[in-house]
Amino acid sequence: MSEIKNISKPISNELRKLDELFKATMKSRVTIIDQISKFILRQKSKKIRPILTFLSAKNCGEVTPSSYRAAMMIELLHTATLVHDDVVDNADTRRGFASVNAIWKNKVAVLMGDYFLSKGLLICIDANDFKILGVTSNAVRRMSEGELLQIQKSKQLDIDEKVYFKIISDKTASLLSASCEVGAISATSDQEKIINMRNFGENLGIAFQIQDDLLDYLGETSILGKSTGMDLKEKKITLPLIYALKNSNKSSVKTIVKMLKNDLQKKQINYIVDFVKDSGGIEYARSKAEDFISKAEKCLDNFPESEPKDSLLKLLHFVTERNY
Amino acid sequence: MSEIKNISKPISNELRKLDELFKATMKSRVTIIDQISKFILRQKSKKIRPILTFLSAKNCGEVTPSSYRAAMMIELLHTATLVHDDVVDNADTRRGFASVNAIWKNKVAVLMGDYFLSKGLLICIDANDFKILGVTSNAVRRMSEGELLQIQKSKQLDIDEKVYFKIISDKTASLLSASCEVGAISATSDQEKIINMRNFGENLGIAFQIQDDLLDYLGETSILGKSTGMDLKEKKITLPLIYALKNSNKSSVKTIVKMLKNDLQKKQINYIVDFVKDSGGIEYARSKAEDFISKAEKCLDNFPESEPKDSLLKLLHFVTERNY
Question: ipTM of the assembly?
Fold first, then answer.
């Protein structure tokens, strides 16, 4: 059995039912929407976020009808961001993909994303799930804010650890945190439990993103299918490099910053990767990821031992330690 | 005094206060968000939608704190769609604007739109304005659905009046309808009044879009700043042409459809415009717009005479009869 199947065993029935609900919700009488929705449904997702939602619900009590709406909202929102991510960006044009066709698709991608988001909102509104709505809307704000801050910093090239953690918390951890929080909200009104689950997701998300950023230096393909060196090409300065720059002499820093100001070729990328490795950037980022994994674990301390809790811990390690 | 100033006289204080609120809401500690927000604020909008919201509120009772949140939500949502519209589409590439710079901006445009939308959602959520939230979320769904259907039909080139009215109701009338409905909701719990205001906005919106589509044939610049012949270039088949095609012989239809399948040059556009004019397409679309203007007027029949009601009627004629 694959690791993810094993993790989701306590909620396998719930996930199956969610699949059916999701398929039914994605149906549309507008052919173009129906076709694109079917295309998206065929791209098998790992469903990390709805798994977190259901496990969080079970960890706090029982899965309720509201848990399904929470999981639907989260998955629709995640789908919306994936579709919006498909909008051709700088990186794609550099790789030569900016055909007229790709650009035509941009318009459709924007509209489909807006459509999925509105569908998610309406599911919660129709059932008066306003707390879930608040948590997810806040996640939308944080995600866009984090991505925009990252774009800004990739132009300015001035980024320290504090800004780095703000970016990854907002762009990545926000939705994983929301996935856990809405699951908890759907199952309990115990504020302490809800806050613990929210923080579990937040710390898991931060650890996950540090790990994902590390993979860019380790020459492996990440869980997101991101290819190596891509962050550097996009001028994304992540934790390993931030640490390395902070702990080097002025002339090394000057050389690297000069490289980053221009288009990076393979040679320069290899140079920067070696620089990061030699400066202990990898070990530092790893230890930071470990810190957040420990923080996440602590958030579950007050919950009794159970299958769902066990799965949450397994999932934490699955998404944050892969490919080490 | 300009017509729009005259129309908004009964709510000029409210609009001023909204301006202040809007400015305060758009502030952000993330520089890139702050800069783009300021840029958007400098582009003076006619504020048709918040004007509708406040006038609808006053027509149903009094402007309340909830009316301000409703107007904020509507204006933020409108801003989000404008920013998302800025994503480079097919038309722009044909006009040769698809520079790398424009494409880089795409990513930012998508994220800024998502950001504005989430800000609007959070304003309503924080104040428990859930009815307003439901109305606006439904408008988001309808807008994206309408735009997607229009894109689909511009590829298939099969469009009849029924589909045309579905497209323009969803893509245009939905937000104008929502602007009126949320205004009414913020001021009264009388369902009949709310429905009448919603329908007033819907009919106004349909008449507005027919008129806007007509301008493409009349060689004038529309209220939206759209340039002439653009719809045809984008294969948008609107009411005047739908009528003309329906009332012509097979060989004429064949000629036109053949033209539409290829990139249109000025010569072909002039040919199609003349074809539409000769077939009575202009008069037909005009009479249809008049029908919806009358319908909108009727929606206000049961409201007592008042300054706000008078302004709503003036606004109806202002947005639907300009440039006739």
Answer: 0.89
